Amino acid sequence: MNNIKKYIKNIWTIMPMHTKKEKFYLNELKKHLNEYLDDHPQCSYDDIVQQFGEPKDIVVEYIQNSDENDLIKRMKLNQLYKNFLFSFQ
User: Fold this and answer.
1) How far apart (Å, rounded) are the C-alpha atoms in residues 5 and 30?
2) What local confidence, expressed as pLDDT, does residue 88 receive?
3) Can you list the pairs that 72-77 forms with residues at least 24 positions away whose Cβ atoms lie under 8 Å?
4) 59, 11 in Cβ contact below 8 A?
5) Are 54 and 60 in contact (CB under 8 A)?
6) Is 11 within 8 Å of 55 (Cβ atoms)?
7) CA distance 71 to 17
8) N or C: where does the chain have the smaller number of CB atoms within 10 Å of the terminal CB?
9) What is the pLDDT of residues 51-79, one digit of tens each?
10) Three-class DSSP labels, the chain
């Protein structure tokens, strides 16, 4: 697994939700990472973390910059969906 995929996977793993908005956000981040990789082809995973931040810090920043009401609404919908699926098991 290359360093960019590993970095994105680590962010995705700790994201509280996995909706289109988060996918769009990570795709945009991946574009920036690829640009960085073009300029620094020998960069390591640690170089990426140093340049862009720890995956947990990326997630925290994403949440802080998100609309609170939208975030709460999506989290509630996500929980309802999980409860619905769980009731059929």
Assistant:
1) 9
2) 60
3) 74/17, 74/19, 74/21, 75/16, 75/17
4) yes
5) no
6) yes
7) 9
8) C
9) 999 999 999 999 888 776 676 666 666 66
10) CCHHHHHHHHHHHHCCCCCHHHHHHHHHHHHHHHHHHHHCCCCCHHHHHHHHCCHHHHHHHHHHCCCHHHHHHHHHHHHHHHHHHHHCC
